[in-house]
Structures are given as C-alpha cells and as structure tokens.
Amino acid sequence: MNFAKRNKSIVDFLFILTLFGAFAITALFVVLFGARIYESTVNNMNSNYEKRTAMSYVTEKMRSHDYTGGAQVDETGSTLKLYQNTGDKRYVTYLFVDDGYLKEFTADEDYDFDYKAGTQILAINDFSVRKENDSLYRFDITDTNGEKTEFFVTLYSGTDGEADD
Q1: Which residues contact 48 (CB under 8 A, 6 or more apart)?
Q2: What tens digit of pLDDT does each residue of 104-116 get?
Q3: What are the distances in angstroms from CA 95 to CA 9, 30, 72, 127, 160?
C-alpha cells in the first residue's frame, strides 16, 4: 500500500514538473516574440523619425527662402543652395549630405564651400534635389536603414534660380 501511494506522488510530481516546463518554454517564446516586435517597432519609429524630420527640416528651409531667387540646386543635384540678403551682404546656406549626415553650412556668397564644414543636422545616407520646374523641387532622402523617401516642395514666389540683389 505504501508503494501505490509513492507512485501517485511521483506521477503528481512529474505532472507538475512537466506543466512548469511547458509554462517556462511558453513564457520564453512570448518574451522572445515580444522582443522581436519591440525591436521592429523601434526600428520603424527611428526610420520614420529620420524621414519626417528630414522632410520637415528641408521643407521649412525652403519655405523660409520662398522668394524669387531664394533657392537653387547645384549642378550635381546633391546640394541645395538657399540665398538671403542681409544689408549689403549676400549669404548662402548649403544643405547637403557628408559622412552620413544631413548638414547645413551658411557662409558669405564669396566663400569657397567645403563639404567637410557644416553643422550635422540628422543622420541620413543620401540626399538629392532636382528642380522640376520654376517652383517645384523634388527631394530624395535615403535614411540610415536604406529606405528611400521622395517628396516635393512647391515655392509660391516662382523662383527663377537667381537670387535678388
């Protein structure tokens, strides 16, 4: 009789141990699955942040130079030049990508532009701009994940590519 009671205790113990093992494995899979979802969500949020911030920044810079001759694209299409007059001086703000960052550099118009200069704005891989017509500009931005975003900015002043004096 003692033997039958002992078998029942071993079966109960093995059942509880198996149940605990199944729970532990299920919990591990849930945690791993949740970590993967979290990582994907963070990557998507970072990518969206990079894209939206770059788009907003470039759009606002273009809007602040929305006057005849306020914006110009360089020959390569990799640099946007934004002109402004202050007193008797004329300044150019360059927007470009160098070493994986969107950069901005403002200098006197006569200054020799250097791609190594400038303030880092945002980490992106590529930036290009093309003037579609007198007032429409097309921008292509590639974020750090390699995702390309295309957007357009319209200037309402009707730029002609030359800055006013």
Answers
A1: none
A2: 999 998 888 887 8
A3: 76, 46, 11, 9, 19
